[in-house]
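Researcher: Here's a chain I'd like modeled. Treat it as a single chain, no partners, no ligands.
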Amino acid sequence: MQIEAVARSEVEIRGDLGSLKVLVVDDETSIREALQSYLYHLGIPTVHTAQNGKIALEALNTEKYDYLFMDLMMPEMDGMELLKNLDSNGRPMSIIVMTGFPSMEKVIEAMRNGASDFLIKPFRLQDLKISMERVHRLHRLAKKNWILKRQLEQKRQVEKLNQELQVKIREKTLLYDIIDSLSKVNRSDDLYGYLVKKALEVCDASKACFFLYDQERSGLIALSQKGLQSVRPGHQVSLEPDPHGNRCMAPDFVKAHFQGEHIGKVSIDRPLYSPDLLSVPFRIRQEFFGVMLIGGKGNGGAFSEEDQFLMNFLAERTAQNIENLALYDSLKENLFATLGALVSAIEARDPYTRQHSQRVTQVALRIAQAMDRPFEDCRRLESSGPLHDIGKIGIDDHILKKPDRLTEEEFKNIQAHPLIGVHIVSPLGLDEQELAVIRNHHERWDGKGYPDGLKGTDIPLLARILSVADAFDAMNSDRAYRKALPFEHCLEELVKNKGAQFDPEVVDAALRVLKPYTHE
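Model: Modeled as a single isolated chain. Structure tokens:
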């Protein structure tokens, strides 16, 4: 068995000889030259020599060797000092010590400092080969282990780089999405809802609320929220100063909805980043106008610096949009006011229709509220209701004021006013439902209305609501061709035409709103 092991080691070392690099360190020239010649004879292609430890250390700093044959007793730097200065973390190197004075203390010290084997001077060249064969199996295993460690470390580095790359890709994707989606928001009300939704998405959170700063009351007003069931739009939160003069949110509100493990007051004047709460102030031209609070990190995790960076970016990008929307809303309000004045001027020409559009809008709003329509729908009625008949500017006065029955041609002219109205208001940027109020308020539930002949629920709901309000006011006011109908009769007509001209559900809501007035 011993013969087989030796033969196997000889085969292994012979197979590796062509790739080995050896450094021989000895202060005696004859020994260095003899060992170099013998190692060349064995088939080792790279054999370098050094006359002392100092020169050897310089060589080892620039070249990697598989074997180091070194004497212990040398001038300038002996072998033991050289061992202590070797890099133990680099490529594995088998060290065979050559010495004529192998005391046990020296042997133990050399082994502790990395020596693999000893050759006792004087020795035969054959002993050098035997020593290499004895050490080589361990050398191969150490080298393989070193290679595997390097591969594992490289794999870890690649995985780490991939993780960092994924984070950067996600970050860049979110930044682009913020920029792209913000560019598509063209209404202030939509913007605040977008902010909350985007905050939850970006931070993987479950609750967020955007507050507008109320300068008159020096407090905050909730505009939009997700995950806070008891906080409604318009909810007010008071502010109080801390010892440093910073404005802070009322602690009871923060603790009730966001606090978690967070300790301390939440200032609205500076960003707050903690494991369980983010607070991001929003400013326009350095002036504070609102703050976003975000809590409930997904899977019980903690908010990170990345979350804070993304939310700060969202706040910065949003500020410009809010400023632009505020300017747009101001221009839009002026245009609406101008068009509203134009409608009033049109209605003023006919004493029978004076203030008709305003009355219709108010009745439509009350019907919408009775039907529990959301705030956004009421806002749409407020903006489009006063303009629902603006298309009549394109209809001749003699048709509008005609006391007799209209001819077929004249009625066709009247039927054009919804389309004329849509054409006039289209540049204002109204949404589809607002435009539908103007375009489709003369559609009928049975499909016999105009201009599109829509039927049933195909008619937009807000147009159905305004249709009932419009018909009621028309019946309840004097016209050129008749006097106002009695209030009770107007309600009877709504009921009579329920399911034919009008949406039954809208008529029921209108009756709930209007019946209390029958006894006035």
